[in-house]
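Hey, I was hoping to borrow your eyes for a little while. No rush at all, and the record is pasted right below:
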Amino acid sequence: MWRQFLKHLKIYALLIKLNAMRQLEYRVNIVLGLLVEIGYLGVKLLYAYIIHDTGVHISGFAPQSLYLFIGTFILMTVFFVAMLQFNIMAFDRQVIEGEFDLILTKPVSAQFLATLKYVETWMVIPNVIVGLGLVGYGWYASGIAFDLLHVGLYLLYAVLGIITMYCVFTLPLLLAFKLHNISAFHSLIWALWDFNNLPHRIFPSPIQIIGTVFFPIFLITNFSPLAIMGQLSLVEMIWGVLAPLLLFLLTCRGWRRAISSYESGGG
């Protein structure tokens, strides 16, 4: 199992390199994309500054601590856009046109190749810089110790958040094997994603429970900041580890069952 993980990790590194080289063939698109991203980030920074400037505590969180949440949201958006967005939007087309048949012939996991083969590289660079800057400022301004424990907690729940993100947004792709056209799902992606922009505790309790337990989208960007702020209960910390692992097992099992009953869509 460990060998398989290392094998797919090396393949993913190669995919990143190949996608970066392919995207360099269209430098004008990269420049325009970077300008759009910078504009988007400018709006985010203005939004964060306005919240901070009000000095209002939102659901018990000091204004400066919100930079942690917004910065983490931007960093997770990097993984969402780079790893998943284009793969999700292209998936039903692969099934309908029979391209998925070719994926099944490759000597690697079909799930891995179908959901991760497209990687966005250059346009996420501004998000990485701004996201790290906001997290760093929020960390410092909140007076949180920058030690091994807190850094480890942040990174642990960030990795678990990426796993949760992968599962939450790829599990519904299994519908494409039956429905073929899941374009309606695409329109919900960004709407769902924006729920992670601020602490989930600003929402009413029923929404917090749904978004943490039944549809754990709040685990993606909320648990890293909450962990280093000491705002997670022991039950929440355990669930923050257990839920991503259960979701990943469910995702892998669902893919195996879907593929076992898959019929070519290219005929």
Observations:
- The mean pLDDT is 84.
- DSSP finds twelve helices and no strands in the chain.
- Residues 24-260 form one domain.
